[in-house]
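User: Structure with magnesium ion, tokens only please.
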Amino acid sequence: MKERERTFLMVKPDGVQRGLVGNIVSRLEIKGFKLVAMKMITISPELAARHYGEHKGKPFYDGLIEFITSAPVVAMIWEGDNVVEMVRSMMGATDPRNSAPGTMRGDLAVFMGKNIVHGSDSKESAEREMALFFQEDEICDYTLPSEGCLYD
Ligand code: IDP
Ligand code: MG
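Assistant:
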């Protein structure tokens, strides 16, 4: 089976509480990406600090950590060619005021601090974030029957 790229995607507490998990999963499924890992967890302050380490010291950092640890999230790994870049484009800009209609944030969010999803911003971030949230044996290996219709 061909090795395809993987990315980490998380529905944040606001997305879970608003009942948007299914909508977000559905967008990625119908696009043609393959879901290979998924779990609901409440993020610990330690994990939050590691996940958002790049933002430490910024004015919004403390609020971000408080928010992301406040209630369960749904963490996922998605697979497909160019999935990192394409999921970022499907998420839309960080600030929903600038997220294009048709994107997750453009369609479903109105405020930067409650922008419903996190997605890895590079292949390096994807590797780091997948390892933070998942053990290797939690990532499933299976064939998507539609793959022949999706790729050459
Ligand atoms: P991203 O989620 O689009 O990758 P980042 O710049 O990595 O955006 O910021 C992480 C998260 O921190 C954002 O999704 C958003 O929820 C929050 N955030 C970023 N910048 C601000 C800000 O200026 N004010 C409040 N929250 C912010
Ligand atoms: Mg980011």
